[in-house]
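Appendix B. Raw example, untouched.
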Amino acid sequence: MYLDGKMSLELVPQGTLVERMRAHGAGIPAFFTPTGASTTVETGGIPIRFNPGGFKNGVLIPGNKKEFREFEGKRYIMEPAIAGDVAFIHAWRADEAGNLVFRNVANNYNNAMARNARLVIVEVRVTGEFFYTGLITV
């Protein structure tokens, strides 16, 4: 679909994507990262969208050229924060106030997504007013 000009696409490394969302949730408008520096990502060489009919008909929306800076001799590009509309996340535990506890791999991105989105839909394993200590059997 991308190569046919039917959809837009921005190639972003997973870690940079998560940091862009985390930054928005923390109120940070942009940050610098070495990932993508001195590549076609920096120069905006990867088109966001091709014209209808595909890449043979040219570029409809060119790639975003990134601002760069050097810190201590290393090149970095500036990535803007992005806001999420809806986040579907999984939490191990929640209370009535909406406080969430994440376990295991759910710690990776759910916290950043929950802070980023305007609407958060949470699947919860256990609910309750207080936290249990010890082993829980069902």
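End of appendix B.
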